[in-house]
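2.7 Reproducibility. Because tokenized structures are sensitive to small changes in the input, we list the exact sequence used for GNAT family N-acetyltransferase, including any N-terminal residues retained from the expression construct. No trimming or masking was applied before prediction.
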Amino acid sequence: MSTPALRPYLPEDAAVTAAIFVASIEQLTADDYSEEQQEAWASAADDEAKFAARLSGQLTLIATLQGVPVGFASLKGPDHIDMLYVHPDYVGRDVGTTLIDALEKLAGARGALILTVDASDNAAEFFAKRGYVAKQRNTVSINGEWLANTTMTKSLADSAAPGASS
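Resulting structure tokens (single pass, no recycling of outputs):
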């Protein structure tokens, strides 16, 4: 099993990132969200140009396996993880871990001391295993549907490189 490679988001990634986003929501969130909630959530990719602009305006990384994009993650501003999505066919192959490791390192290098994420219910356990702590529950309205998520934070100072002063 190969380790995912990372590269920056490119404008030509718009269609594939939208497809990963939708497939991830449709196939991985049914235990936590209704079909109506999933459809409302996935609708963020309906306007591909708007979706691409969102990713272009952030520090967005694409994870690839054998050159094929299989996931992506984005950092909004210096310290907020906006998106982390892995294609369902590649879950469990270190794609999400590779992406989040990179975002944590990049955020730390940019001076962030704490990272935040509004984790969906199905992603909260992934973030908790990585040292993120739940701070508050939220509800957001998307196209008339209410979805719950959890704001989680992680201190980057706690994960400083060995030998680094803390």
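The first helix runs from residue 14 to 28.
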